[in-house]
């Protein structure tokens, strides 16, 4: 009698988790996404401070820094189950946000800079990706993903390019974080160095060529604007358009990367022509939205609102990426990644100048 009376209370609590289990994954994922959203909102406010804006730090960069600080020092304050939502934000939401980034460019912008601007953009992007991948792997001993992510950040559009390459390569979060670190360091340096070189009379470029040089060789859009605005408005306009031309090259580069990965997988696994082509559908969406933006079929206010929302979504993805990154992982590859970033920076500074002199 006494044993049976004590058995019931022991078995009752065991039944409650079973009833709650089906709803838990969705609730935990939603909580994780909302948590990252709140952090991203705070990051947006922080990035809007005049001091941060003057340094040329976009909300994406501020987001990954804040996420890394939280993930390494305060992660215990977040329930572990919410990690599913953080991962969802860093993966699924990221792809959607990259696709909508296409609303920032148009075919008209690309045509405005003419053949010289397009030639410089293509040469810089291709040269940087090839040099970075070869030097990173063969000379510095980096793994393929780290070398490509670092090269993409320098070649195309900084942190946004790293975010776009990361799902295609299926790279670990810490590899994206170290790639973004090179963007922050050398892109920020460019903001101060380029105007100094110009005002010292060492560049010897007219307004059009100078805008092509700045837009064709500096990492982030915000950094391009920051550097060019210290010269004059005309240079800023050309530099921004050339920079967006580099952003537009993200789509063909990702498609070529997908074919390269299929070829590499076929050789490694002994497969033939039947290997599936890993098409980055978010890149196709990027191109489609760029075309829509070029046709002006959407109201200007709607496009502006979507752009603001997209920056917030990208900031969420970057913040989530930071939360998943550990400093120990960065320290392991840090010096070699920084060395690659420095080599690519020297190439952009000197090689990019030579390309502009030839094309402009």
Question: Could you characterize the architecture of this molecule?
Answer:
The chain has helices spanning 2-20, 24-47, 50-54, 59-73, 83-100, 107-112, 114-139, 144-157, 159-169, 173-199, 207-217, 221-228, 233-248, 250-269, 281-295, 300-323, 327-359. With 360 residues, the chain is mainly alpha-helical. The longest helix is centred in the last third of the chain and has 33 residues, at 327-359. The N and C termini lie far apart (96 Å). The model is unreliable at 1-23 (pLDDT under 50).
Terminal residue distance: 96 Å
State the major sheet. Answer: none
SSE string, helices as H and strands as E: HHHHHHHHHHHHHHHHH
Radius of gyration: 23 Å
- Report the mean per-residue pLDDT as an integer: 85
Total number of helices: 17
Strand content: under 5%
Poorly predicted parts: 1-23
Large-scale geometry? globular
Number of strands: 0
- Tell me the structural class: mainly alpha
Helix content: over 70%
């Amino acid at each position: 009698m006494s044993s049976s009376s004590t058995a019931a209370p022991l078995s009752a609590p065991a039944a409650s988790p079973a009833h709650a289990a089906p709803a838990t994954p969705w609730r935990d994922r939603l909580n994780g996404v909302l948590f990252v959203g709140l952090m991203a909102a705070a990051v947006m406010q922080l990035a809007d401070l005049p001091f941060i804006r003057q340094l040329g730090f976009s909300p994406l960069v501020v987001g990954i820094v804040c996420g890394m600080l939280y993930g390494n020092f305060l992660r215990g304050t977040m329930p572990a189950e919410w990690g599913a939502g953080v991962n969802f934000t860093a993966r699924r939401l990221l792809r959607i946000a990259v696709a909508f980034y296409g609303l920032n460019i148009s075919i008209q912008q690309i045509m405005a800079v003419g053949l010289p601007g397009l030639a410089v953009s293509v040469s810089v992007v291709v040269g940087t990706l090839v040099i970075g991948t070869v030097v990173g792997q063969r000379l510095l001993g980096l793994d393929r993903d780290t070398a490509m992510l670092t090269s993409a950040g320098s070649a195309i559009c900084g942190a946004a390019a790293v975010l776009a390459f990361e799902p295609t390569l299926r790279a670990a979060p810490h590899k994206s974080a170290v790639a973004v670190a090179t963007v922050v360091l050398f892109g920020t340096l460019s903001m101060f160095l380029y105007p100094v070189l110009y005002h010292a009379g060492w560049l010897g470029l007219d307004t059009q060529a100078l805008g092509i040089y700045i837009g064709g060789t500096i990492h982030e859009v915000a950094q391009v604007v920051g550097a060019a605005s210290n010269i004059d408005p005309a240079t800023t306009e050309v530099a921004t358009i050339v920079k967006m031309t580099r952003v537009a090259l993200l789509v063909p580069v990702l498609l070529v990367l997908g074919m390269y990965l299929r070829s590499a997988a076929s050789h490694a696994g002994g497969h033939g022509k039947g290997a599936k082509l890993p098409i980055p559908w978010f890149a196709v969406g990027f191109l489609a939205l760029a075309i829509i933006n070029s046709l002006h079929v959407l109201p200007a206010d709607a496009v502006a609102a979507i752009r603001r929302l997209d920056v917030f979504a990208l900031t969420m993805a970057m913040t989530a990426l930071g939360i998943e990154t550990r400093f120990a992982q960065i320290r392991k590859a840090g010096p070699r990644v920084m060395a690659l970033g420095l080599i690519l920076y020297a190439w952009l500074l000197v090689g990019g100048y030579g390309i502009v002199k030839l094309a402009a």
